[in-house]
Design brief:
- The protein is mostly beta strands.
- About 0% of the residues lie in helices and about 50% in strands.
- The strands form two sheets. Strands 2, 4, 5, 6, 9, 10 and 11 form a seven-stranded mixed beta sheet that branches. A four-stranded antiparallel beta sheet has the order 1-3-8-7, with no helix packed on it.
Length: about 110
């Protein structure tokens, strides 16, 4: 059974950085695209960044230039490096891929 487990969320001040990790189980990680979504209170879930099996990344305009998605197929892990964080980045961040979602990790940007 495929599972995704996120980690790395927390409380950070504006301008700070966090790195989220998503560890996957399952045999097909290396051949599927993966994505990081986020859902702020009272808002719909939105795609923040995605990465193809070949490593091509795509970003929402709101995070472009500040966030970097990457993957390590040997470790079956996808990362989201978040720099220059803003209060509006506060959300629960979810990893998605292989038809499943992770449980989410809270990111709070506040002084």
């Amino acid at each position: 059974q495929v599972q995704l487990v996120e980690s790395g969320g927390g409380l950070v001040q504006p301008g700070g950085s966090l790195r989220l990790s998503c560890a996957a189980s399952g045999s097909f990680f290396s051949i599927v695209a993966m994505g990081w979504y986020r859902q702020a209170p009272g808002k719909e879930r939105e795609l923040a960044a995605s990465i193809t099996s070949g490593g091509k990344a795509n970003y929402a305009d709101s995070v472009k230039g500040r966030f970097t998605i990457s993957r390590d197929n040997a470790k079956k892990t996808v990362y989201l490096q978040m720099n220059s964080l803003k209060p509006e980045d506060t959300a629960v961040y979810y990893c998605q891929g292989m038809g499943v979602w992770g449980q989410g990790t809270q990111v709070t940007v506040s002084s």
